Amino acid sequence: MTHAFSIDVEDWYQVSDFEEIVEFPAWRWYESRVIGNTERVLGLLAEARVKATFFILSWNAERHPALPRMIAAAGHEIASHGYAHRLAYEIGRDQFRADVERSKKLLEDLTGHEVIGYRAPSFSITARSLWALDVLLDLGFRYDSSILPVRDQLYGIPNAHRFPFPVNRAGLSLTEFPVSTVPVAGRTLALGGAYLRVLPYAYTRWGMRRLEAEGQPALIYLHPWELDPAHPRLRVRGKRGFSTHYLRLRSTEGKVRRLLADFAFAPIANVLGFEPGRGETRRIAASGERSR
Predict the structure, then answer these.
(1) 181-184 and 187-190 beta bridge pairing
(2) What does CATH list as the number for 2-272?
(3) What is the pLDDT of residues 80-101, one digit of tens each?
């Protein structure tokens, strides 16, 4: 079975846990390590002969135009992570649309590739911001990966589908592909990201095998800064009152190498059967309702 591998291309200081002390206007004053860390990710993928989806925070692409170009030149899928890493349920519909539209156009202009995939910062399409899916449909996206079927203070819709499902409205459709989760001791835990970094690799491998047994492709994600244990330290409480940002950073690279060796991966568009750069938003019989 071929699974989906994805990278959220953010710099180390652009995460939601740092918002309390690192405001967006000050981003340009912080040391940028996103190019070098993304090159490390590209190197690991090249060694394993794996192509992936890169959800690029477009402020970084605007500042470093070579960033999306080198990713595209290596044969990976370019997708949007928005422009300024603002949570959908905090900024509202109009600002969300402007942010995503700006990001999509910038990435397409820089790479010459159609952008058909989106992931909201910190998975911030929740029950409070389901209107964001209508915006994505209007902007021509073919898939989204922003709804996480877990219970968390920052994100999540606990009763959402765990596996890819269609979102339909007024003759338009996109596929929601949630980051993979597995039920563990009465809870639902994600695979990838902090869970890959903090928990033993045996958990990730077990979760992947369980999804294969269910006949479902997994979707894994990570950030380039998770491969960089030397990036600067900031003292933060995080949005939950604690932060896992600096935990077990030295373990990430070894786990990623094992993961890429143990399982087959491809970009999200390939796993879903889409062809980036070809065609318009898929049209279906109008239903007027969103499928859940």
Answers:
(1) antiparallel
(2) 3.20.20.370
(3) 999 999 999 999 999 999 999 9
